[in-house]
């Protein structure tokens, strides 16, 4: 055995101060042998080594390692359950998939951890003992909050008839359209007016396009597009007698339904119709879109809600929701719940992803004409001249309204403002902005929707979003299907087999070779043609039969019976 | 009553002056980012389309040779240097970034068969059809001085290939015999032979310095060990092997360029069958060179195209061609792994990018991140039909396109014939031979 190596740190601890264990580790570098070469590098290292490395002792030794976010939070960001590794047979693929799954899990955890970085806090309204939140009026709420927030509660008294109002996707701009032709666009936070026009025609609905410089107005007979100075850019005569407008921002589709029962999608990036179908269901006036999968939801007088995509002439799905005409439909921004209301005073909440329900079944005092979900899943219900806001009404049954506001005139339409605690209500006599604490998402994502967007940012975002435009063909009930493996379902297989029955034999264009004169008459040629055609037909039938036959029949067990002498006289079984 | 309403201070979200960058606030809540899969798919589609838009691989050509380029050599440490030899015996040294010729001289009487740099890079050795091995200084001669070789050795036999040891001062030449030389001596250290066939290429293993591989005219590939008396092994292919290259990162693997339009990757531990058959060329493959990463290699062919293969894939990922490029005689992958150099019959040396759509020059961090992101997306959605179609599509010259169709029909026909023979003969009479075993005749020890 050679000399045992002595390490400087061992010696230091044992000899000098063995009890130096209070979290501070000091390294003594004087013992390091200096090499002749590279002295400068060595010297530098010594200088660096003289610094004390201080380790902060763990305040609670019970918890070691990194802090893991709570399970519910990870659940929120998770991409669903992973691949079943048991079914992967080859080890190479198993390892690859394992690695991938690990990365996905890691990303979900990290996304959950970023919640710490969110700066804003959501709003709330809490009642003291003996009070209910319903009893608080807008005036009381506005008195309790800061001036800037209180300025978000305002009232516009206008005289051009029932108003419809819509916010932009970032919640900064507001567009209102009165039945008697008054259209106005403005930045409602700073109250800066972009334009105010009277189109001198009846206005049925208004809608922002992808940016705040353009909006569409459904007028008496056609749809018009104006810019934010009120200049008419387009008159779309193919959209005739439109009653409701919806804009699908990621697909750049302006969807509309008409009084004559037509449903149409206009691609505003190229100016072409992506689809226009006659639903055959009469007058359409209840329209909303599902923000999760971009399908259109139509409410019908028969109590049916139908879901549409521009690729199919038939609805993708239909749900019988009520036994009375449907008055209001709305889908929450996460695409989980759909609220429907009917003229028989019912209000139902449905699980729209499974097309199941109802999750909740409410009976209202009065039939609800309008419904609207906020980003935090609060539901505003408009009944006559009263608007009620319900909180936590989807999974649990809400006992009483969270807020209630009574107007003098009947309500025409309302929408929650994204990223704000505001409900904008269009009434017969103007527009009112109500404060609903806790309705909006407090933290916006700049790259998705930015209320503080500058002009340059808006331009850049427009280009980016146009590059990422999703094609209208990709609108389906399940938007994640593009990332799934395309496995034929049992129904597809059966369908494919059924289609084999209707296969037609190929057309054979047989052109006989030109032979020398006198070698064959027209009769012979005709006969040859017939033979060739029949051969091809036989071949085709044979192949079809093979395809139709079940492969299982090959391994069918043979009946075990000893052959009889007289079996030879039985008819032979063809194989 | 307690109440709070969202009330943001605009100062926290707006930049202070125009000199600042815009403030970016993220919220990764999935509800705020709908259509994740669909948007990613569109991004992947855009990325793969942009790849096509930016695919401009041809960087420039070096002209000056007065006859076809026969061979090229890269400097072991300076990536801007290239040495090339021509069929008229001329050797030229090129400055690649300037695209100029720095030296030119006639080195041999007849074709220059091979050039190698020594390990230090201060000399290079050329061999020619005049049976001479000449050593030249890598530095230019002083003004007024003539180009003179530092050393000249006259070999007794014809020379056809040369390879330098990666760490030693020895080099090997091939011809009628395989000879090992020391840089300082005029006599060969050793002479190895197996059979009477001539060898047209030889290559030292980059790691195991004693292992040599050579390809012979009797369609065989021979492995030598310089420590032993006799050669190690020999594998005979169906057609002749033109060139051989060791994988620099997995030095037990080598790839051969074959006359039958294919390249074969062998594991030297098991020569019974190749590890992979790389098909796509429609003419005899004349040259092959690995990238320094060992993941990819480039091949030049008699069908006037350069192809880049991934080492473990059977088909090429890229094809380079120009209207004027003729039959390829040599291709090299530069040592910074970014460029491919090709020398061809029509006297030009061409510089190509190794990745057709890569942006040259330094990248900004955001650019890098964006490229990495689109790379990941392309990988994720690679098997979607649209993405696949766009990524795979290449415009090929008419003669290549027609030849591909012809080869396809030939292959189908032979396959059909074999299937028919199998169907009409006793079971087991016509065995199914995998593609990888089809091209090796036998292995000798």
UniProtKB/TrEMBL annotation, chain A:
<dbReference type="InterPro" id="IPR040315">
    <property type="entry name" value="WDR46/Utp7"/>
</dbReference>
<feature type="compositionally biased region" description="Polar residues">
    <location>
        <begin position="16"/>
        <end position="27"/>
    </location>
</feature>
<dbReference type="InterPro" id="IPR001680">
    <property type="entry name" value="WD40_rpt"/>
</dbReference>
<dbReference type="InterPro" id="IPR036322">
    <property type="entry name" value="WD40_repeat_dom_sf"/>
</dbReference>
<feature type="repeat" description="WD">
    <location>
        <begin position="319"/>
        <end position="353"/>
    </location>
</feature>
<dbReference type="GO" id="GO:0032040">
    <property type="term" value="C:small-subunit processome"/>
</dbReference>
<dbReference type="InterPro" id="IPR012952">
    <property type="entry name" value="BING4_C_dom"/>
</dbReference>
<keyword id="KW-0677">Repeat</keyword>
<protein>
    <recommendedName>
        <fullName>BING4 C-terminal domain-containing protein</fullName>
    </recommendedName>
</protein>
<feature type="region of interest" description="Disordered">
    <location>
        <begin position="1"/>
        <end position="27"/>
    </location>
</feature>
<feature type="compositionally biased region" description="Basic and acidic residues">
    <location>
        <begin position="555"/>
        <end position="575"/>
    </location>
</feature>
<feature type="region of interest" description="Disordered">
    <location>
        <begin position="546"/>
        <end position="575"/>
    </location>
</feature>
<dbReference type="InterPro" id="IPR019775">
    <property type="entry name" value="WD40_repeat_CS"/>
</dbReference>
<keyword id="KW-0698">rRNA processing</keyword>
<dbReference type="Pfam" id="PF00400">
    <property type="entry name" value="WD40"/>
</dbReference>
<keyword id="KW-0539">Nucleus</keyword>
<feature type="domain" description="BING4 C-terminal">
    <location>
        <begin position="401"/>
        <end position="479"/>
    </location>
</feature>
<dbReference type="GO" id="GO:0030686">
    <property type="term" value="C:90S preribosome"/>
</dbReference>
<keyword id="KW-0853">WD repeat</keyword>
<dbReference type="Pfam" id="PF08149">
    <property type="entry name" value="BING4CT"/>
</dbReference>
<dbReference type="GO" id="GO:0000462">
    <property type="term" value="P:maturation of SSU-rRNA from tricistronic rRNA transcript (SSU-rRNA, 5.8S rRNA, LSU-rRNA)"/>
</dbReference>
<dbReference type="InterPro" id="IPR015943">
    <property type="entry name" value="WD40/YVTN_repeat-like_dom_sf"/>
</dbReference>
Automatic annotation (TrEMBL), chain B:
<dbReference type="InterPro" id="IPR015943">
    <property type="entry name" value="WD40/YVTN_repeat-like_dom_sf"/>
</dbReference>
<feature type="repeat" description="WD">
    <location>
        <begin position="321"/>
        <end position="362"/>
    </location>
</feature>
<dbReference type="InterPro" id="IPR020472">
    <property type="entry name" value="WD40_PAC1"/>
</dbReference>
<dbReference type="InterPro" id="IPR036322">
    <property type="entry name" value="WD40_repeat_dom_sf"/>
</dbReference>
<dbReference type="GO" id="GO:0032040">
    <property type="term" value="C:small-subunit processome"/>
</dbReference>
<protein>
    <recommendedName>
        <fullName>DDB1- and CUL4-associated factor 13</fullName>
    </recommendedName>
</protein>
<feature type="compositionally biased region" description="Basic and acidic residues">
    <location>
        <begin position="434"/>
        <end position="445"/>
    </location>
</feature>
<keyword id="KW-0677">Repeat</keyword>
<dbReference type="Pfam" id="PF04158">
    <property type="entry name" value="Sof1"/>
</dbReference>
<dbReference type="InterPro" id="IPR001680">
    <property type="entry name" value="WD40_rpt"/>
</dbReference>
<comment type="similarity">
    <text>Belongs to the WD repeat DCAF13/WDSOF1 family.</text>
</comment>
<feature type="region of interest" description="Disordered">
    <location>
        <begin position="407"/>
        <end position="445"/>
    </location>
</feature>
<dbReference type="Pfam" id="PF00400">
    <property type="entry name" value="WD40"/>
</dbReference>
<keyword id="KW-0853">WD repeat</keyword>
<feature type="repeat" description="WD">
    <location>
        <begin position="62"/>
        <end position="104"/>
    </location>
</feature>
<dbReference type="GO" id="GO:0000462">
    <property type="term" value="P:maturation of SSU-rRNA from tricistronic rRNA transcript (SSU-rRNA, 5.8S rRNA, LSU-rRNA)"/>
</dbReference>
<feature type="compositionally biased region" description="Basic and acidic residues">
    <location>
        <begin position="408"/>
        <end position="421"/>
    </location>
</feature>
<feature type="repeat" description="WD">
    <location>
        <begin position="105"/>
        <end position="137"/>
    </location>
</feature>
<feature type="repeat" description="WD">
    <location>
        <begin position="278"/>
        <end position="319"/>
    </location>
</feature>
<dbReference type="InterPro" id="IPR051733">
    <property type="entry name" value="WD_repeat_DCAF13/WDSOF1"/>
</dbReference>
<keyword id="KW-0687">Ribonucleoprotein</keyword>
<dbReference type="InterPro" id="IPR019775">
    <property type="entry name" value="WD40_repeat_CS"/>
</dbReference>
């Amino acid at each position: 055995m050679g000399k045992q190596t002595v390490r400087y740190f061992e010696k230091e601890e044992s000899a000098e101060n063995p009890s130096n264990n209070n979290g501070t580790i000091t390294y003594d570098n004087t013992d390091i042998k200096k090499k002749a070469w590279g002295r400068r590098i060595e010297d530098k290292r010594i200088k660096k080594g003289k610094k004390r490395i201080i380790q902060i002792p763990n305040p609670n030794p019970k918890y070691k390692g990194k802090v893991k976010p709570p399970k519910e939070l990870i659940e929120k960001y998770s991409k669903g359950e992973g691949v079943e590794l048991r079914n992967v047979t080859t080890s190479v693929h198993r390892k690859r998939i394992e690695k991938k799954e690990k990365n996905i899990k890691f990303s979900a955890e990290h996304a959950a951890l970023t919640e710490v970085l969110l700066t804003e806090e959501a709003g709330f309204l809490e009642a003291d003992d003996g009070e209910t939140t319903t009893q608080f009026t807008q005036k009381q709420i506005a008195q309790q909050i800061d001036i800037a927030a209180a300025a978000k509660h305002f009232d516009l008294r206008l005289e051009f008839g029932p108003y419809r109002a819509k916010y932009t996707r970032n919640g900064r701009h507001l567009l209102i359209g009165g039945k008697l032709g008054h259209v106005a666009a403005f930045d409602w936070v700073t109250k800066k007016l972009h334009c105010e026009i009277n189109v001198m025609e009846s206005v049925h609905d208004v809608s922002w396009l992808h940016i705040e410089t353009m909006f569409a107005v459904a007028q008496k007979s056609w749809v018009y597009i104006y810019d934010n100075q009120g200049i008419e850019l387009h008159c779309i005569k193919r959209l005739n007698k439109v009653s409701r407008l919806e804009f699908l921002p990621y697909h750049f589709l302006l969807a509309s339904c008409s009084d004559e029962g037509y449903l149409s999608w206009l691609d505003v990036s190229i100016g072409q119709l992506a689809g226009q179908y006659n639903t055959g269901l009469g007058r359409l006036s209840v329209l909303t879109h599902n923000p999760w999968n971009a399908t259109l939801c139509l409410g019908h007088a028969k109590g049916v809600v139908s879901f549409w995509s521009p690729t199919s002439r038939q609805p993708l799905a239909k749900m019988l929701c009520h036994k009375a005409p449907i008055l209001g439909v709305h889908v929450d921004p996460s695409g989980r719940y759909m609220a429907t209301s009917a003229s028989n005073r019912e209000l139902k909440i449905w699980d729209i992803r499974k097309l199941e329900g109802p999750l909740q079944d409410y009976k209202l005092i009065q039939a609800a004409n309008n419904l609207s979900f906020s980003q935090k899943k609060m539901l505003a219900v408009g009944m006559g001249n009263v608007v009620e806001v319900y909180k936590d009404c989807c999974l649990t049954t809400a006992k009483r309204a969270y807020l209630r506001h009574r107007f003098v005139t009947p309500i025409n339409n309302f929408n929650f403002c994204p990223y704000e605690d505001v409900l904008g209500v269009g009434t017969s006599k103007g527009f009112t902005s109500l404060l609903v604490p806790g309705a909006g998402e407090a933290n916006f994502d700049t790259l998705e929707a930015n209320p503080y967007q500058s002009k340059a940012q808006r331009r850049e975002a427009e280009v980016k979003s146009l590059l990422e435009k999703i094609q209208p063909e990709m609108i389906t009930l399940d938007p994640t299907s593009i990332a799934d493996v395309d496995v034929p379902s049992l129904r597809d297989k059966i369908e494919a087999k059924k289609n084999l029955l209707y296969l037609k034999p190929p057309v054979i264009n047989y052109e006989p070779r030109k032979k020398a004169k006198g070698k064959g008459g027209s009769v012979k040629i005709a006969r040859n043609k017939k033979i060739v055609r029949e051969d091809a037909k036989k071949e085709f039938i044979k192949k079809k039969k093979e395809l139709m036959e079940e492969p299982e029949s090959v391994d069918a067990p043979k009946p075990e019976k000893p052959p009889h002498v007289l079996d030879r006289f039985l008819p032979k079984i063809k194989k | 009553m307690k109440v709070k309403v969202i009330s943001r201070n605009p100062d926290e979200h707006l930049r202070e002056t125009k000199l600042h960058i815009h403030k970016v606030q993220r919220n990764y809540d999935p509800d705020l980012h709908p259509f994740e899969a669909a948007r990613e798919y569109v991004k992947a589609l855009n990325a793969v389309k942009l790849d096509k838009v930016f695919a401009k691989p041809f960087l420039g050509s070096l002209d000056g040779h007065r006859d076809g380029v026969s061979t090229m050599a890269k400097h072991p440490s300076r990536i801007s240097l290239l040495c090339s030899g021509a069929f008229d015996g001329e050797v030229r040294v090129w400055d690649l970034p300037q695209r100029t010729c720095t030296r030119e001289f006639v080195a041999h009487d007849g074709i220059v068969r091979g050039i190698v740099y020594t390990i230090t890079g201060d000399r290079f050795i050329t061999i020619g059809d005049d049976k001479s091995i000449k050593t030249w200084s890598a530095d230019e001669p002083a003004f007024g001085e003539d180009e003179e070789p530092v050393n000249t050795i006259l070999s007794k036999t014809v020379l056809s290939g040369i390879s330098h040891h990666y760490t030693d001062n020895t080099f090997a030449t091939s011809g009628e015999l395989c000879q090992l030389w020391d840089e300082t001596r005029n006599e060969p250290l050793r002479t190895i032979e197996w059979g009477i066939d001539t060898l047209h290429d030889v290559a030292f293993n980059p790691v195991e310095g004693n292992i040599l591989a050579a390809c012979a005219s009797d369609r065989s590939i021979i492995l030598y060990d310089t420590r032993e008396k006799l050669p190690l092994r020999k594998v005979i292919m169906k057609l002749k092997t033109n060139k051989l290259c060791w994988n620099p990162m997995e030095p037990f693997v080598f790839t051969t360029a074959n006359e039958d339009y294919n390249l074969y990757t062998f594991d030297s531990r098991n020569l019974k069958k190749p590890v992979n058959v790389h098909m796509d060329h429609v003419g005899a493959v004349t040259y092959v060179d690995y990238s320094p990463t060992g993941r990819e290699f480039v091949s030049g062919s008699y069908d006037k195209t350069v192809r880049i293969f991934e080492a473990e894939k059977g088909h090429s990922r890229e094809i380079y061609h120009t209207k004027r490029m003729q039959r390829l005689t040599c291709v090299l992958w530069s040592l910074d792994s970014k460029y491919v150099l090709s020398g061809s019959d029509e006297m030009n040396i061409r510089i190509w990018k190794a990745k057709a759509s890569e942006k040259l020059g330094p990248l900004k961090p955001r650019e890098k991140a964006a490229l990495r992101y689109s790379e990941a997306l392309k990988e994720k959605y690679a098997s979607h039909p649209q993405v696949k179609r766009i990524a795979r599509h290449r415009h090929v010259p008419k003669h290549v396109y027609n030849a591909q169709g012809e080869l396809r029909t030939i292959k189908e026909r032979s396959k059909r014939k074999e299937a028919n023979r199998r169907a009409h003969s006793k079971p087991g009479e016509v065995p199914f031979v995998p593609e990888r075993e089809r091209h090796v005749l036998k292995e000798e020890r």
